[in-house]
Structure formats: structure tokens, C-alpha cells
Amino acid sequence: HGIGLDKKEWLHLVRSDAEIAAMRRLKAAFDPNNILNAGRVFDLAPAASIRDVPPQ
């Protein structure tokens, strides 16, 4: 998509909310730990691990 750090703040001007949400879901699905190009386009927190969930 070619956004990168320079154009990151203007992403919402060229993509709809639905498109941005889809991009976020794809990023989270393919990189759940947010280790690939972390923070380049989205500021995602790493997904919670099963070990992080307290037992009930």
C-alpha cells in the first residue's frame, strides 16, 4: 500500500474506515505479535497470548 512513516498520518484521507479496518485485521492476522515493520502504518499492540489470560 506504500504508506510508510511519512504518509501515516494522512491514511484516513485516502482510505475509508472499512478499508483501514480491513488493513488492521490483515496485519493482526499475519503478524499477531507485531514484529514485522512495527509501527510503520498501524500502532498495534501485540495480541494477547493464551498464557496472558488468567485461569477462571
The percentage of residues in β strands lies in under 5%
Determine the mean pLDDT: 77
Parts with pLDDT < 50 across at least 5 consecutive residues: none
Number of DSSP helical runs = 3
Helix content: 25-40%
Tell how many strands the DSSP assignment holds: 0
Give the biggest beta sheet. none
Q: Structural class, from secondary structure content?
A: mainly alpha
Amino- and carboxy-terminal Cα gap: 42 Å
Shape: flat
Topology pattern, helix = H, strand = E: HHH
Radius of gyration: 14 Å
Write a compact overview of the structure shown.
This protein has 56 residues and is mainly α. The chain has helices at 4-7, 11-14, 17-30. The model has no long low-confidence stretch (mean pLDDT 77).
Written overview of the protein:
- The protein has 3 helices and no strands.
- The termini are far apart.
- With 56 residues, the chain is mainly α.
- The model has no long low-confidence stretch (mean pLDDT 77).
